[in-house]
Amino acid sequence: MGSLTEQMDIKAGRQIVVWGKSDNIRITDVLNPLDLREAGLTDIENLRLPVTMTKLDYFFRGLNLSNMVIHEIRYAKNPAFGNDFFPAAQPLPSKETPDEGFDLDDTEFAVALNGIFRGWDASFYWANVYDDTPHLAADAIIPVPTFKQDHARLNMVGAAFNYAWGNWLFFTEAAYFDGIEFFNGGDKDYHRIDALAGAEYSGFTDTTVSFEVADRHITNFDARLEEAPDFGQEDAFVSALRLTRTYLHDTLSLTLLAQTFGITGEDGAFQRFSAEYDYTDSIEITGGVVFYKSGDLVRFTGVGDNDRVFLEIKYHF
Q1: Rounded to the nearest 5 degrees, what angle is found at the Cα of 262, between the Cα atoms of 257 and 265?
Q2: Rounded distance between C-alpha atoms, residue 267 and residue 271, angstroms
Q3: Domains of the chain with CATH codes
Q4: How many DSSP H helices and E strands does the chain contain?
Q5: Cα torsion for 141, 144, 145, 149, to the nearest 10°?
Q6: Among 154, 235, 239, 273, which is 20 to 30 Å from 182 by CA?
Q7: Which residues of the chain, if any, have pLDDT below 50?
Q8: How many CB atoms lie within 10 A of CB 272?
């Protein structure tokens, strides 16, 4: 990392770059894959996996223009066959395309323009990246049909806004995705619009409450996408309610996070009750419980019996 000029910085190496305003639901935050092996155990900020990139920042007139060249292809870590959260009766194909790692032809690109103003801020995004969620595709037909996990190349344009008003913070995000592919979709590309709106209130003593809701809408959806193995949805709703209260001079934090998929939870849900305690400047203790509700969403099929109790102790050197 270094400064090329007074207005330009450059940083190269494995990085995490966060896009968007939501802490609970990803809309424009597309640059880093997630560790999704156990849903609901921790927040998104602890799930992002770094990728190797070169990031060039240019600062002018109170704005920041970020240009990113992502050299490393890396995908989300999903539950493996046999895991409590793996929904299928047989493993997925082991082959993924393109391969993880470094290949000049697979380089991804992204640009962000950010501005922070009095009482509000805005961000605009563009990215040309691989879809982190693969679709099944034919690998060979002769002599025996075989399949692979294929990651489509997507174009995304999006924006995010924050507005502060007294003890309230209002935020919204929207993104348009082009190039989505499905097994049952043949050679046709699909388009999706993701939109989110939320609010956070901090007017109570040592307490913050937030609520957000989002919808992912496939604009050119057709009924064949509902069939296996895609199980696609024309509209996928998700909402999140978070309540956090601090005690003991901010050393103890209690949090309730309830995330619901579908308008009434028909696609699944989970609730997490957690506590974080800074025992010393070096020792942090986290523990809690997660309750799951099964639903129609593939990754929530049969998870109702997967309730978890967790405890973690971190020592910072």
Answers
A1: 60
A2: 14
A3: 2-315 (2.40.160.100)
A4: 0, 20
A5: -110
A6: 239
A7: none
A8: 22
Are the C-beta atoms of residues 253 and 288 closer than 8 Å to each other? no
Residues 254/275, Cβ–Cβ less than 8 Å: yes
The pLDDT assigned to 138 comes to: 87
The count of other CB atoms within 10 Å of the CB of residue 153 is 15
Residue 151 has φ and ψ, to the nearest 5°, of -105, 115
**CB-based contacts of 39, cutoff 8 Å, min separation 6:** 85, 270, 292, 299, 300, 303
Cα distance between residue 159 and residue 11, in whole Å = 24
Q: What is the pLDDT of residues 192-243, one digit of tens each?
A: 999 999 999 999 999 999 999 999 999 999 999 999 999 999 999 999 999 9
Structure tokens at 259: 């995330």
> Tokens at residue 80, please?
């493996």
